Amino acid sequence: MDYIDRRSMKKIWWIWLFMMGALSTLAAAEDLTQQAEKEYRQGKYLEAADTYKKMLTEGQESAQLYYNLGNCYYKLGENTQAILNYERALLLNPGDRDARYNLQMAQSQAVDKIEVLPEVFIVRWYKSLVAYFSADQWAYISIAFFILFLGMVALFFYSSTAALKKTGFTLGIVILFFTVFSVIFSVKQYRRITERDYAIVLTPSVTVKGAPDNSGTSLFVIHEGLKVKIIESLGEWVNIRLEDGNEGWVAKRDIERI
């Protein structure tokens, strides 16, 4: 009996330590958040940015944190860093209208104005739909649709009239269709977050090469703040594609992944 009591006390002790550690972590995070918000209100944008970056190093990544950090850099006149952090905020929360508006404001000050290749309406609509919600939000939507689908299955099997059975069958097929697509959209958004194949140019002026080497043919010049897609990597070089379809190689040090 004493052995059992000692084991129980040990479990309680470890649970208590875990709870105390979690509470202290939450308290520290809240203290840093309040500190950063106070520094921002006082116009100490550099100090606020440093506090937000400290929170990131401690693993407190969130769309709101990146948005706040972007605001700090925008106030400091560091437009490229503002763009980078607004993009990261939108990566985690595509529906953040404030982050999207501020990103557009920051991008309006960038040097390069790239003409986007026209897309078929259905493709453009599809991409907008996928990006409207985050991976977690699409996952919740798929769960909700699946629960509705189970309800329609129950309606089909347990209804006493043919009309209700037909309704359950028809709606069940439609809801299953939405469930499958919600799962697909969730996976696509999750891959966007994990793969992060877009980047922001950090160097004021970069000459894009035709080969992954300094001796490669110079193709064109791009400037800081420009968003590019990473196609492949080779050593210290990456092959990038612009929104107008142009491609080439730049050094890894010239860009930072979103």
Automatic annotation (TrEMBL):
Keyword Transmembrane helix assigned: yes
Signal peptide: 1-29
Domain SH3b, first and last residues per copy: 206-255
Membrane-crossing segments per the record: 138-157, 169-187
Cross-referenced Pfam families: SH3_3, TPR_1
Coiled coil stretches, renumbered: none
Entry annotated with the keyword Transmembrane: yes
Highest taxon of source: Bacteria
PROSITE patterns xref list: TPR, TPR_REGION
InterPro entries: SH3-like_bac-type (IPR003646), TPR-like_helical_dom_sf (IPR011990), TPR_rpt (IPR019734)
Official protein name in the record: SH3b domain-containing protein
Lineage: Bacteria, Pseudomonadati, Bacteroidota, Bacteroidia, Bacteroidales
